[in-house]
Amino acid sequence: MINRNISYLLFIADCLAVSQVDAQTHRPNIVFIMADDLGAHDLGSFGSDFYETPHIDRLASQGVRFTQAYAGGANSAPSRACFMTGMYPPRHGVYTVSPSERGDVQKRRLIPVKNTEEVAASFVTLAEVLQQAGYQCAHIGKWHMGDDREGTGPLSQGFDLNIGGDRMGSPYSYYYPYCNKTQTRCHWALEGGKEGEYLTDRLTTEAERFIRQRDPSQPFFLYLSHYAVHTPLTAPQDLVDKYRRKLPGKHHSNAVYAAMVEKLDEGVGRICALLDSLELADNTLLVFCSDNGGTFQATDNYPLRGEKGTPYEGGIRVPLIMRYPAKLKAGTTCDVPVINIDFFPTLVDEANGIRPTGLDGQNLFTLMGAQSAASRELYWHFPAYLESYRDAGFRATPYSIVRSGAWKLIYSYETTCSRLFNLQTDEAEQTDLSTTYPEERQRLEALLFNWLRATDAPIPNKLNPKFQAD
User: Fold this and answer.
1) How is 72-138 classified by DSSP, letter by letter?
2) What is the architecture, at CATH level 2, of domain 26-374?
3) Where are the domains of the chain?
4) What three-state secondary structure class fits 313?
5) Over 90: is that where the pLDDT of 374 sits?
6) Residue 19: what pLDDT?
């Protein structure tokens, strides 16, 4: 759905290099590294002057850095469900990380849509398609979309190996044994650790072990899904002290979080070094991204408004880097708006797999090569409530969003009103232009409502009888 009459972001012509690889005989290995709650500007290569990320910055210099990349949801579970299914939330039904009736019931004007907390086994996942195409598939780290014991975990959804993944969204502790000592069995089942072992390091070690022990006659898909940098904020004391001595940064000043970011960066460096040493880097498509925006508990998303869970750019904009020497020119930047549902068709096409029907995403390589891709429409749907950490209010009440070119419209189901922003001139979303540009507001509302109907999106339109106005 591309409006060719709107011109906003100019495509960087040299994003794509001419491929010399025959995809039929040289299918790439795929390494997908996902951080948790890493803000859009929490890397040196994305503007931070405080967090030190030399390995990820080097990765960016070797591939393409996307400046307009989005998660499919403003928090973890829906975003990951979008990635794994290639579909928007109205299709898979995962809208938030837990029941949708969060926060003070007397402050919820509407009855929210019931949430689904796992990707049903009936959905064809990215891993299942890659497995069918002959890939060895390993999941290491956070899953947050079900549990293997219930038929909705990684081993039930196309992965040959699952280490550390179940329905949990965060660790009890970042130090071994990573779980509440009153539990008889840690839900990650990471045996063989020792006191002082750090979770980010351990997951990296498990990923290295898989790469070394894989069957070299087959390509592989490694989904390394870190719990870092999600709370609880915990990191080795020597690194925390390092950043306390470095304070303050221009916009970032959390020394513990900075240390967690550095440990994440160190893990990415280890994976890249191993690929280099095994001479796998040239035929490996490596992706690094985050599942949603940063949280105010940990970081500052400046210049973006909002945080994880909110409908603003700070909640849904994420860092994204792709490296694939066979197709991507090193050191380039791409300003085309992309979203994590695009990974499914991209990776399946590169693997010479067969796309299932009903995907919502588009191939990123095609988007990077299309002059009109900058004006594509992107959508979000959140028919739920998400309470605030700081007061009795909400980070988010039910909303839907459409982005079209430079324009972004946020529709509130409580007020039945829209807010309109021009991201080209107002990236911080400070000025509502809905009354200044009524024709643009009406155009985007029509796009949004048509999409909601097309996806059969459930709408929260029933009044909550327990609501009490202030």
Assistant:
1) SSSSHHHHHHHHHHSS-HHHH---SSS-S--S-GGG--BPPPPP--S--TTSPPHHHHHHHTT-EEE
2) 3-Layer(aba) Sandwich (3.40)
3) 26-374
4) helix
5) no
6) 36
